[in-house]
Amino acid sequence: MSSLLAKAFILIALASVIGGAFCLLLSSHSALKIRRHLYNYVAIGALVGFFASGLYFFVQIGAINQSGLSGMLDRTMISILAQSGLGYASLIRVIAFFMIVIFFVFKTRFSKSEALNFGGFSILFFSIAMLLLVYSFSLIGHVTELQFLAGVAVGLHILAVSLWVGSLYPLWYLCKLEKVERLQQIMRRFGELAMVFVGLLILSGVFLLTQLLEAPIELISTSYGLTLLFKLTGVVALLSLGAINKLRLVPGLTHAKGVIHLQNSIALEIALAFVVLMITAYLTTLVGLGHSG
Fold first, then answer.
1. pLDDT of residue 128
2. In whole angstroms, what is the distance from residue 19 CA to residue 45 CA?
3. Which letter, b or e, does each residue of 161-179 get, where b requires 16 or more Cβ atoms within 10 Å of its Cβ?
């Protein structure tokens, strides 16, 4: 259970920092109060990811030793796992999340208010940290048993999911405070860009399915397949809600009632996204390939 929670927090943190940064770009002309809130959203997400990444490493040590808290601090096992894929992935995540925490705290605490923007050096710095985080997922898990292209697909899949899921709370927040005209522009721009990363999400996901499953029957004949099927159901529900938002609710942003409808729809998306992330954490932590149902 500890491993599951730590992994879930890592995924939530990753979504927060990537989706939050993306929304900072979209809302570059929004009021200072809105931009400051989004900076805090990213910084808090990175802080959660920093601690969750370290915790996940030590929890895995405790699980191997099967001796609880004392086993987590076994120096010999720490030394061994520090040189494994788990160790390298955890170190990369801790460093990347820490980079983001320091950077965003500096921006919000020591920068002039008029300089609280997200461009130029900020984008370059964040891109490096983001690539490190995405790369860390290719070092552990089922993908390590697959070919190089599968690792690339995992990276694209995680990036697309994080952009989409991590943007939901900022978009919900914008519905509360942003002016209707500006909100329309942001939502339309988000919808246009969402077509790109949702396309990446679907293509990379289908490719990974062909790599992880030997036959379609495994979707209903193995524990891994059944869990994956539940996840796919949640993703389809999210895609459906996203389509409703883009095609029906965003065009209806002409009055306060339309904004409320969109905000409620995004809130439902957030709840579904949380369920999908929890299933993903369970799938990648407690369920192995080839386990029969």
1. 92
2. 10
3. bbbbbbbbbbbbbbbeebe
Based on the number of CB atoms within 10 Å of its own CB, is 65 exposed (0-12), middle (13-18) or buried (19 or more)? middle
**Dihedral sign from CA coordinates of 166, 167, 172, 174:** positive
Whether residue 293 has pLDDT greater than 50: no
Kindly give the interhelix angle for 256-285 and 223-244, rounded to the nearest 10 degrees: 170
> How many C-beta atoms lie closer than 10 Å to residue 261's C-beta?
17
At residue 292, φ and ψ (nearest 5 deg) are: -75, 150
Span 170-211, pLDDT tens digits: 999 999 988 888 999 999 999 889 889 889 989 988 888 888
Q: How far is CA 139 from CA 2, 100, 111, 114, in A?
A: 21, 21, 36, 40
Give the gyration radius of the chain's Cα atoms. Answer: 20
Each residue's pLDDT tens digit, 86-109: 899 999 999 999 999 988 877 777
**Is 0.70 topped by the overall pTM?**
yes
Query: In Å, how far are 54, 75, 136, 246 from 193, measured between CA atoms?
Result: 33, 47, 25, 11
| Structure tokens given for 5 | 């929670």
Coil, helix or strand for 279?
Answer: helix
CA angle 13/173/162 to nearest 5° reads 30
Q: What confidence tens digit (pLDDT) does each residue in 242-255 have?
A: 888 888 888 888 77
